[in-house]
Amino acid sequence: MGALLAGVVPSLAIQNWAYAAAGCGSQPVANNDDGFIVLGESAPLHKAPYNACGVFQTVPANTKIWTWCTIENDYGNTWIWGRIDGTQNQGWMYIEHAKQVEEAPTSNDGWCPGEAPADPDAIDGADRIVEQAPPADADDALPPADFDPATDVDTAVPTVGGAEKGVEPDADYVAPEGDEDAPDAGTSTLAAAATALKYGKPIKRTKVIARAKNWYSRNVQYSQSAYAWDVNHGKKFRTDCSGFVSMSWALTSSRTTRTLDGVSHRINWSSLKPGDMVLRSGHHVQLFEKWANKAHTRFWLYEEGNPNSDMNHYKLYVSTAKSNGFKPWRYNKIRD
Known about the structure:
By secondary structure, the chain is an alpha+beta fold. It is built from 5 helices and 19 strands.
C-alpha cells in the first residue's frame, strides 16, 4: 500500500490493488478515468470505500483529486479512488464530499476493475415498457424559455427548509388528498385570468426542479385543504403530495394521484430525468430530482410527505420504490 501512495501513477489500464470492499480487504484499482473532483468541504481520504476502514489523511476543502476509477459499495454509496493533485497520495473519497465532479472515462466507463454494473436497463426488470413519445400538442411550439420566471429562491419567504432525511412510505401507505377541483383560494378573478395563460404550457426540467425547491425551502406544510403560492406567486396549489407535483409542473389545477397520469406517460426506470414523477396511483407521488449513484439504482426525490413530515428530500432505492408499487412517469409537456 505504501508503494501505491508514494509511487508513480501507473499508465492507463495498468491494474493495482488498494484496500477496499467488504471487510476492508483488497480491491483492484486502475486508472480508468481522466476526470477529477473538487472537494466542497474538508474530508477524509479513506483506505477503503467505507467510513469504518481507516483514514490516510484529511484533505482540505477546494482540493482537486484526480479520479482513477469508481466503485459502488455494499450500501449503494459511490466512492472514487483518486490521486490528490500535486502529490502522489492516493485513496478512497466519498463522492458526496465533492462540490464539482468532472468525469472523463477512458475505459470501462470509469469503473474500477470488476465493478461495472449491468446495463442500466436491467433495473427495469418486468416493468420495462416500450416507451412512447408524448402526444402532440398545439403548445409544443411555444418556447419554454418564455413560460415561467421561476427562480430557485422566493425572496419573499424565509428559507427554513424541509426534512433532508424523509421517511420512506410503507407499502400500504395512502396519502390523504383533497378534491381535485377545489377553488384556487386567494386568487382574484382578474389575477387568475392574467396568470392562467402561463400554466399548462411546456416547461423546462430546470424550472420544474426550481419550483419544487422553492416549496422545500419554505417547508410548505402538508394539508388536504390548504393552498400555497408557487415561486412566482402566479397561482396557488393544494399542499398535499399530488398538489406539490401539480405545482412543480405548473399545471392549471391541483390534480390527484388518480389523475396525474392524464397529463403524463409511462417511462422506464432507467429513463428517469429531473422533474419526472414516481407514482403509485391512488396512494402517493414523488418528484424525481436526480440519480444518487452512478449505477442508477438509487435516486434523490422531493415530496410533500404527510401531515407529520411535510416537505421531504431524501434518497430512495429503485428496488424499494418498485416493491412498494411505484412506477415512473413523465409529464407530457416537460422539456430538456
